[in-house]
Amino acid sequence: MPITLHWQLPKMADMGRPQNPTGGRDDLQIDMSRCLRTRFCESSCRRCAAACPQGAISLEGVLSTDAERCTGCLVCTTVCPSGALEHDGDFSTVLAQLSRVPEPVLGCIRTKESSHAALACLGGLSEEHLVTLCCSLPGKLTLNLTACGDCPNGATMPRLRQRADQLSGAGLMDGSGQIVMVESHHDLAFRDETVGRRSFFKSLRNSLFQSAALVLSSHNEQSEQHTAYAGKRLPARRVLLNRTRETASRALADRIGRHFDSCVSFKESCSSCQGCVAICPAGALQTEHHDTLPAFDRLLCTGCGLCREFCMDQALMISK
């Protein structure tokens, strides 16, 4: 006899949050060593500060966020090209939760009781996330926006729709799935996950283990980390995109490349100093021989532009 199961483990950060909550500074993972302005003091990058609707991000001196102003809309994580600001959560777990349901619903911390999986805020769904959701889920995915009307982060939803529209116009929402955004409770078709008795107890056991692990690790959680400046690391959403294109059809993978990939080329004035190789935060530029032009890997390039800003010879060009 089937048992209706809808169980989501609470995040430790959710405890003590007020009624009708939003997210907050704790939902961000900050790695200042990845910030372009930290890596090169003359960088003009202001993407995160320009996108933040609350004015919670400061770039004076070093990257910092105001915990009192930040409402966890996560918009900054959708525009940071280097991984200095990222969602402090595991998106692969969200995908796994959604994949168990024929017509899943993805919500936020306000709508998690009527969603199969939840993010701190749906404003953190970048273009890379949307493409992955569309390609990874075979049926219809509903984004639960029913609580956005009276939410301080509600103003970010037009940006989410704009991202989806841009992807649709580029032919990148033609995966096996379909994404629908629902603002009215009347239009929301949510059903609890139904599982058999054996699956119920298996889920119960796994949930208990996850709860224990969460409690044991809660005192060690950090919202800030530091990667060695010489180290190279791709932003999480770029890693996600690269995995998605590996399983996409050839035609869709080509469209993904045209929309997301950049191309770095060099003018004759390049002195092969290899400074761009050192400054690149993702490792897209690599030294083959010290007296030749660097090698370029488009899959590792996020188009941040730091190499071009840093080049003393002004010999570097970036194009789509």
Textual characterization of the structure:
The protein has 320 residues and is an alpha/beta fold. It has two domains: 3-225, no CATH class; 261-319, Alpha-Beta Plaits (2-Layer Sandwich). The chain has eleven helices and 15 strands. The strands form six sheets. A four-stranded parallel β-sheet has the order 7-6-8-9. The protein has a three-stranded mixed β-sheet with strand order 5-2-11. The model is unreliable at 1-17 and 206-222 (pLDDT under 50).
List key phrases describing it.
11 helices; 4-stranded parallel β-sheet; single chain; 320 residues; Alpha-Beta Plaits; 14% strand; disordered N terminus; 3-stranded mixed β-sheet; 31% helix; 2 domains; alpha/beta; globular; 15 strands
Q: How many domains in all?
A: 2
Whole-number average pLDDT? 85
Strand sequence of the main sheet, in spatial order?
Answer: 7-6-8-9
Rg value: 21 Å
In brief:
The chain has 11 helices and 15 strands. The chain is of the alpha/beta class.
Q: Secondary-structure blueprint of this entry?
A:
Elements (H helix, E strand, L loop, with lengths): L2 E3 L22 E4 L4 H4 L7 H5 L5 E2 L5 E2 L9 H5 L5 E3 L3 H9 L5 E3 L9 E2 L8 H10 L3 E5 L12 H13 L8 E5 L10 E3 L1 H21 L6 E2 L10 H12 L2 H11 L2 E4 L8 H5 L5 E2 L8 E2 L9 H5 L5 E4 L1
Parallel strand pairs: 2-11, 6-7, 6-8, 8-9
Antiparallel strand pairs: 1-10, 2-5, 3-4, 12-15, 13-14
Helix pairs in contact: 5-8
